Amino acid sequence: MNKYGKTLNLKNVKADIIDTDPFSSYFVVSELPNILTSGKNGFSINGSNLLKVGSEVYIEILDVNGSNIYVEVAKNSSKVSYKEGSSIVYSIQIYADTPVGVGIIYLVGTDTYGKLVKWKKNIEINPSIQNKSKVRFYNKPSIQVTPFINVTSETDVIETNINGTFKGIPVKPMAGYPISYIDQVREEYEYIIDVTSGGSLTSDMVGRTITLNGNDYIIQEVINSSKLKIAYPITKNGKISSDSGDLSIDYYPYNNPTTISSNAFKKIGTAEILFRNIETFTGKIYRYKIYRSSINAPYDSECISTGIFYAPEHIYDSETPYRHQSVLGKILNSTFLNQHWFVSNPSTGLLHSPDKMIDSFETDGFENSTRKSDYIIVKSGVSGSVDYVPYNDVTYMDRSSNVYNSNFIKLYKNIEYIFSANVIKTSNTSDTSGIEFYLKSSFSNAMNNKICDSTGLKLFELSDNKTGTIHYGKVNGSFILEEDCYGTLVIYPYKSNYVLSNISIKPYTDYSYGPDIFSIRVPFDVRAKNEGNKITCELLDVDNKLVIGELSTIQYFDPYGVTYPFNVIKDNEELILNLATIEMEVAALSSSLYNTSQSLISLSSEFYSTSESFESRFMQLSASVSHISGSTVSGSSAIATTTTLGSISVGNGLKINVTGSLSLDYAAITWGGV
């Protein structure tokens, strides 16, 4: 959140000496930019022999309106001012909403004769310009690499077209306003298109082109299923116009399950790379590059990912094979809603409500709930369970388990996070009604003094006695954890019903302010099982200049070789599971799965004792197959269900039929999964 400087009134201080040197003969100012830009601007004070040894230096910077700008001095681990050579380094923080104009910087200190000396300088402030200050970090950055195996889908999406009619609604500026009067750099447009016929709008359309009466415009935002905003207003004869007529939109509807054809699922190697301690004291890191090299061929390095740092979403399902459906706070459709959001009371419910807000759900029946009597919980998988399951290290690694589903949100200590959501309330009572949002976690030591009984950490609360339909817009609150923790989001509405969309937890950031922490998952082609790789990351500034070039670690990937090759069982093919063969290595699964006459599954004695029952293993197989493919599996042992299957001893064969598309490899049939 924005920080503000202390009022010292240095402009009114009567000094004995006015230092008129542009860089100050007394304070010796260096690195001060000509323009203070958005972000953390660095400058240094070295001091000269004209200044008294040990003199306190007072600093005050005012913007064009006379408001104080936050200035921070760098300090080392002993809380002593950090120096580069003999200079003390300072950070001037400019935010996106800092006004453009000419500000003033004041310095006041004491000379060798005990006289008060003052230096001031006018300085331009423009937060619309990218920050190019020298990059300095509070702490030494580091990386942590975790190998994963992800299921992904090969998805075909059918391009769709909407043709209909529209009515233009100019909001800001109003209709008739000359377009030439608008400052296109500093002023924002708000022009709404009301789709009066032709079809429903979805968030897939954002960034796509909409053709209105033969002219093309860019869709900036989708408000609900019938209204959107365009990036530039409709004009006629040089003025804003409330036009109407015909429209056309071409787009790819990823959010509509009926337009998606998933013809195969497969497992791919993935590296989750976590950047820690990347908060800067001055300047900004803008871009990263990630390289890999095998420890067997260390000089054979390749770049596997490059991108721009941003604030990552944490209400995020990293395990779904459908990457476009991974942000769980955007409610894309009814199927998506029912898979991830659950209510504790069967008398209440959730309804997909794009007519109210795009990508939203509406609560139903909570007008009868009292405070904290009924709740809504989000989970990463299709668990069907409303209960929160406490975290434990062992079960969490099974990404299909209820432990993982209840703790899929991972947050880190000493990071400022922002919780936000778009909220509409519908209330028929004058009694106080409200909605509360909690981070539920079994890591109680991570919670600070905001913790409320056993519910968790309160992130945000709305309560009032307003009736009717109240549009709160986007609400938000910040929080910091004292330890890393795993958990999920729990929502308690009471005495009213609510429409919620864009429910989010992200690290705090602003224009030209990078995140304090960042993670990304990168596809990682595995060339040999248990392959060791050196992962090296580079950090670059806005000009693509190298800031840090040797953040590295060694990690091993895919110890059992399950991500290659990729094989698919097609519709109605018979699959024979022969459990008798235990001598073959796991790599034997590279044989074709289409030849149903041969032994397809080989279980290594490294994982299974021949004297053990296979009951729990096949229960896991059933869950894994259903999760991976969504297909129907049936056979003599009712393997499609998760009921008790009975013990299947070594030497028995099991014959099943597959209906649908089944991706099957070693990871799909092991007892623990991946």
Task: Describe this structure as you would to a colleague.
There is one protein chain. The protein has five domains: 10-134, Immunoglobulins (Immunoglobulin-like), CATH 2.60.40; 159-252, Beta Barrel (Elongation Factor Tu (Ef-tu), domain 3), CATH 2.40.30; 262-311 and 513-557, Sandwich (Immunoglobulin-like), CATH 2.60.40; 323-507, Jelly Rolls, CATH 2.60.120; 568-669, no CATH class. It contains five helices and 44 strands. The radius of gyration is 30 Å and the shape is globular. It has 674 residues and is mainly beta.
- CATH topology name of the largest domain, in short, is Jelly Rolls
Low-confidence stretches: 258-263, 564-674
Distance between the termini: 39 Å
Overall morphology: globular
> How many separate domains?
5
- Arithmetic mean of pLDDT: 77
Estimate the helix proportion, in percent: under 10%
Task: Give the helix/strand layout.
Layout: E1 17-19, E2 29-30, E3 35-37, E4 39-45, E5 58-62, E6 71-73, E7 83-84, E8 87-94, E9 101-110, E10 116-126, E11 136-137, E12 142-157, E13 160-172, E14 190-197, E15 209-212, E16 215-222, E17 227-230, E18 235-236, E19 239-240, E20 244-251, E21 260-276, E22 280-282, E23 287-294, E24 301-308, H1 334-340, E25 341-343, E26 349-352, E27 360-364, E28 376-378, H2 393-396, H3 402-406, E29 409-411, E30 416-427, E31 433-441, E32 451-452, E33 456-464, E34 468-480, E35 485-494, E36 497-507, E37 518-523, E38 531-540, E39 546-557, E40 568-569, E41 574-578, H4 615-629, E42 632-635, E43 653-659, E44 662-663, H5 666-669
Parallel strand pairs: 1-10, 3-10
Antiparallel strand pairs: 2-4, 4-8, 5-9, 6-8, 7-8, 9-10, 11-22, 12-21, 13-14, 13-20, 14-17, 15-16, 15-20, 16-17, 18-19, 21-37, 23-24, 23-38, 25-28, 26-27, 27-36, 28-35, 29-35, 30-34, 30-36, 31-33, 31-35, 32-33, 38-39, 40-44, 41-43, 42-43
